[in-house]
Specification:
Order of helices and strands: EHEHEHEHEHEEHEEEH
CATH architecture: Alpha-Beta Barrel
Organism: Sphingobium phenoxybenzoativorans
CATH class: Alpha Beta
Distance between the termini: 12 Å
GO molecular function: phosphoribosylanthranilate isomerase activity
Catalytic activity: N-(5-phospho-beta-D-ribosyl)anthranilate = 1-(2-carboxyphenylamino)-1-deoxy-D-ribulose 5-phosphate
Oligomer: single chain
Family: Belongs to the TrpF family.
Strand order of the largest sheet: 1-2-3-4-5-6-7-8
Structural class: alpha/beta
Keywords: Amino-acid biosynthesis, Aromatic amino acid biosynthesis, Isomerase, Tryptophan biosynthesis
Strand content: 15-25%
Shape: globular
CATH topology: TIM Barrel
Largest sheet: 8 strands, parallel, barrel
Helix content: 25-40%
Number of helices: 7
Bound molecules: ligand LGQLAAA5
Length: about 210
């Protein structure tokens, strides 16, 4: 396994889950959000999550989930990644109620956006700095967009953190060099088309991270 944690997200087939595990991913991610090309119904999400061994974190990516959805999904995963406009108070309540490790995506376009993470310190277990998607976009993530990584150079995140947004096998080493990210998260960058993961791209991404 790489020194730097790797999350391969938006997996939707047994073959691509296996590719992520074979590549040494520390986390595998599954999206439940109807507008996403990676959306999985709960039974399918659960079946794929079961393929991961205990040492690999199973992550559910959710957007402003209500308690009923959390109750249905949380038993199948180790980690819930909140990828919407959830407030720090709502995040803290989710963590307390469902007892899962909680990640919060922080959408970033400018330096000022980084400050939003501070309000979540103590309420969540990890901040995931991700590129902000355009106003009115269908998706709050998973669009293969990147932000200016220099914003994170020298920045001291207020909590454990990871980097997301527009990463791929060709740029991830540079992203790690600039930001010092301890965890990298990829979805679009290991796909051949939206929602279609590519086992060779997954392998290349994991390989690129392992050289860092
Ligand atoms: O992937 C999606 O469709 C998605 C839907 C709703 C919320 C988040 C989503 N994706 C997450 O966004 C980041 C960055 O993805 P990318 O590498 O830029 O495509 C990642 O955590 C995805 O899982």
């Amino acid at each position: 396994m790489s020194r730097i944690a790797i999350k391969i997200c938006g997996l939707s087939t047994p073959e691509t889950v296996e590719a992520a595990l074979k590549g040494g991913a520390s986390h595998v991610g599954f999206v439940h959000f109807a507008k996403s090309p990676r959306h999985l119904e709960i039974d399918r999400l659960a079946a794929l999550a079961r393929r991961a061994p205990d040492h690999v974190g199973r992550v559910a990516v959710l957007v402003q989930p209500d308690d009923a959805l959390l109750a249905a999904i949380a038993p199948h995963v180790d980690i819930v990644q909140l990828h919407g406009d959830e407030t720090p108070e709502r995040a803290a309540a989710i963590r307390a109620r469902f007892g899962r490790t909680l990640w919060k995506a922080i959408p970033v376009k400018t330096r000022a956006d980084l400050a939003a993470g501070s309000a979540y310190a103590g309420a969540v277990d990890m901040l995931l700095y991700d590129a902000k998607t355009p106003k009115g976009a269908d998706l709050p993530g998973g669009m293969g967009l990147r932000f200016d990584w220099d914003l994170l150079a020298g920045f001291r995140p207020p909590a454990p953190w990871g980097l997301s947004g527009g990463l791929d096998a060709d740029n991830v080493a540079e992203a790690i060099r600039i930001t010092g990210a301890p965890l990298v998260d990829v979805s679009s960058g290991v796909e051949s088309a939206p929602g279609i993961k590519d086992v060779d791209k997954i392998a290349a991404f994991c390989n690129a991270v392992s050289t860092c």
